[in-house]
Amino acid sequence: MALASGCTDSVTPLSSIVVPGSPVVRSVEVDVDVDSTLLTMGSRARASARALDANGNPITGRAVTWGSSNPEVITLSGDGVVSTVAPGVAKVLATIDGVQGARDLVVRQAPPSNAAVATVKVSLPRASVRIGEVVQATATPIDSAGRVLPQRSVTWSVVSGTGIISVSSTGLVTAIANGSAQVAATIDGVRGTASLTVSDSASGVVALPQLPETLSFSFPQVRGKQWVVRAGDNLQSVLNSASRGDEIVLQAGATFSGNFTLPPKPGTPADGWIIIRSDKLALMPPQGTRVTPVFGALMPKVVTPNTGAALSTPVGASGWWIAGVEFSVDPSVTAVIGRVVALGVGGAPQTTLAVVPTDLVLDRVYIHPQPSQGVQRCLELNSARTALQDSYLMDCHASGFDSQAIVGWNGPGPYRIVNNTLAGAGENIMFGGADPVIPDLIPGDIQLEHNYIYTPVTWKGVWTKKNLVETKNVQRFLIRGNVLDGSWTDGQVGYAFVLKVANQSGRCTWCAARDIIIRDNLVRNAGAGLGITGKEGSNPNPVGELLNRLLVEHNVFENINAPPFTGDARLVSIMQDAQNVTIRHNTMTAPGSLSQFLNLSSIPAATNFAFDENVVSYGEYGLFSSKYGVGEGSLAGFNGSVSFFGNVIIGPQKSGYPRSTFVSSLAAALSGGAGADQARVNAAIVNVIIP
Q1: Residue 684, by phi and psi: left (phi above 0), alpha (psi -120 to 50) or beta?
Q2: Are the C-beta atoms of 128 and 199 separated by less than 8 Å?
Q3: Do β-strands 81-84 and 74-76 pair in parallel, antiparallel, or remain unpaired?
Q4: Mean pLDDT value across residues 23-29
Q5: Vertex 294: Cα angle to 290 and 297 (nearest 5)
Q6: Mean pLDDT across the stretch 589-609?
Q7: Dist CA 534 CA 577 (whole Å)
Q8: Main-chain dihedrals φ then ψ at residue 64, nearest 5 degrees
Q9: What burial class does residue 387 get, using C-beta atoms within 10 Å of its C-beta: 0-12 exposed, 13-18 middle, 19+ buried?
Q10: End-to-end Cα spacing for the chain
Q11: N or C: lower Cβ tally within 10 Å for the chain?
């Protein structure tokens, strides 16, 4: 499946928050398919495309525009017919609602008509089916040069698993009973096979998450005065005097030292924003391209001379857009800094939603302390309708303290965190961790996409490390198309994700962690993968609900628990009765020591749980609970609906796994169609890794 960038519609309608004057952004996933992705000259194929919702369900009634990435190789008609032009490689492109999906296609020179069949490729639409399903198998004859031959007579058969599947003379495969089977196609005496797994698990019974609302911001127009601020000028005076619609232009290379605030202004952002920008912004990368320290010479520098924030917003502030500015800490500061930039207030007087700062954008900014300084937070998000985009947050670390690149607990969101480098130590990103003082507040509607979220291994033993993403109080959180890199045992046990609910200090009796989607990410170099907990087990304070509606799909976890990135040595650990957890179509591998691929750390570990069509390393104990032992018998440790089918396990064959398939290598596992769609993940993370 090919994935187009962006969010999709969900069973719960996707809404968009739009700044006045900005267009509504509609974004869907586009699934592109072609009859055959290997064509010979002179042949044709039929392409099809679907818009998909958040759960992979088709959305009907959408117009498709077809195109080719390389018209010298293939062309497409208006109704999706692919015609070959010349040998080569091209992509079939399909656009729906302005969002594009793609499918790779290869065109080869036509073989001689009398060429012999060397191999037969048997294809199935998926490697796992449920009892009663019927799927169409296809057989492609290929010659010794790898060229697709014209279709010839095919004889279909079941070579293993008779009684589990049947196959018709035309290649229709019917799933009959639980188990694994192989279907074969024979052409001119040459046989090819494909494997599939049949399960009776019911679908659709584990509740899936709701997508977040998303923000759409466009660069504001200047309607009023331009203020030019040079080195030595009084920046705070200009911030106080500017009006909505004004532009404040700061001299690149100038240093402004102080604890600056963005004061409230009469009116609303609909009456105009205030822009703060570098006078060299035109020389910097355009929106959509991330800045790095290389561009620091083009930025003015706003520097705190003490442990207070270089920039903050009091209650009531709104409508500030900051572009091309560096925020840092004076090298003379030796104490631990609280935060470099603070949007919103974490406590009083921000005690009602009405006074929360809102409509704030950090665009192509560089936020960091000095490399040797300790800081608890590079960016504090306790605001509403806020974006951090195309920016670079570095050296967000401390020793003996929690530290984050981004943290928030007393702002409602939505937050747009897109295309940034986020280098932190404790938890790179955390929502929760302190109790909100606004009653019933849960930070939510968070779009975390296309970010490089990492901890350099050179920080090991220097700065305290916990995890890469942690939740304690959050809702509607989309984590998509990121690269998460670097976690090990230190302050915690090295998980990439720690997902739980926590009423930190006893006030947040409504706290929850719900509607979390982790999709199309690359997760690597961590001591463990997913730590999923219904509620923080060591915390006796009551919560509003247990962790609920978590979907983890099409992610690649690699190099887990490999030195120096060692930790709990588990791919997934789940406990404390998490609710409605779905983990499907992920590839999760560990090259060395691994304890379990799925560990039930308490009973019940979860209520309503699905673990389907994943590729996993087996480790020492595979699927394990202390009550039920090793193997699929431990699935009894879940309450409610349980689905466990189509999983491929890398390692020697083990007893106790009747619903699973064992293979000897990752390559063998991926050949059957289980695991993450690697092409989809690659497309989602292109150009994300910028250290």
Answers
A1: alpha
A2: yes
A3: antiparallel
A4: 48
A5: 110
A6: 94
A7: 5
A8: -115, 130
A9: buried
A10: 29
A11: C
The predicted model gives 268-276 an average pLDDT of 96
Helix (H) or strand (E) holding 237: helix 235-241
Longest dimension (CA), the chain: 86
* Whole-Å CA distances, 232 to 63, 254, 462, 553: 57, 8, 37, 53
Query: Where in the chain do CATH 2.60.40.1080 domains reside?
Result: 16-108, 119-199
Q: What's the CATH number of domain 214-684, 2.60.40, 2.40.160, 2.40.50, 2.160.20?
A: 2.160.20
How confident is the model over 115-169, as pLDDT tens digits? Answer: 899 999 998 877 777 776 777 888 988 888 877 888 889 999 998 888 889 999 9
For 617-676, write each residue's pLDDT tens digit.
999 999 999 989 999 999 999 998 888 989 999 999 999 998 899 999 998 888 877 899
CA 413 to chain CA mean position, Å: 18
Give me 593's structure tokens: 């020591």
Written as one letter, the residue type at 115 is A
Tokens of 613: 């069509």
For residues 414 and 16, give the distance between their C-alpha atoms in angstroms, rounded to a whole number.
10
Exposure on the CB side of residue 507, measured as CA atoms within 13 A: 15
For residues 687 and 250, give the distance between their C-alpha atoms in angstroms, rounded to a whole number. 30
What are the residue ranges of CATH 2.160.20 in the chain? Answer: 214-684
Name the residue with higher pLDDT: 614 or 10: 614
Q: When comparing pLDDT for 58 and 445, which is higher?
A: 445
Cβ atoms 103, 33 nearer than 8 A = yes
Angle in degrees, CA 582, 583, 585, rounded to 5? 130
| Per-residue confidence (pLDDT) for residue 58, from 0 to 100 | 62
Fold (CATH) for 16-108? Immunoglobulin-like (2.60.40)
> What CATH code is assigned to 119-199?
2.60.40.1080
Give the tokens for residue 150: 């014209």
- What CA–CA distance (Å, rounded) separates 125 from 58? 16
Q: Give the residue carrying structure tokens 């005496």.
A: 189
pLDDT bracket for residue 93 (50, 70, 90): very high
pLDDT of residue 305: 98
**pTM assigned to the model:** 0.74
Cα–Cα distance for residue pair 350/614, rounded to 1 Å:
45
pLDDT at 684: 95
Q: Where are the beta strands (DSSP E) in 520-601?
A: 522-526, 528-533, 548-553, 556-560, 570-575, 578-584, 587-588, 596-600
Residues 6 or more apart in contact with residue 129 via CB below 8 angstroms: 135, 173, 175, 196, 197, 198, 199
Residue ranges with strand state E in 337-460: 337-344, 358-363, 366-367, 375-382, 384-389, 392-396, 404-408, 415-418, 421-424, 427-431, 444-449, 452-454
Give the tokens for residue 369.
Answer: 């302390």
pLDDT at position 219: 96
Question: Encoding tokens for residue 453?
Answer: 């979220």
Residue 6 has pLDDT above 70, yes or no: no
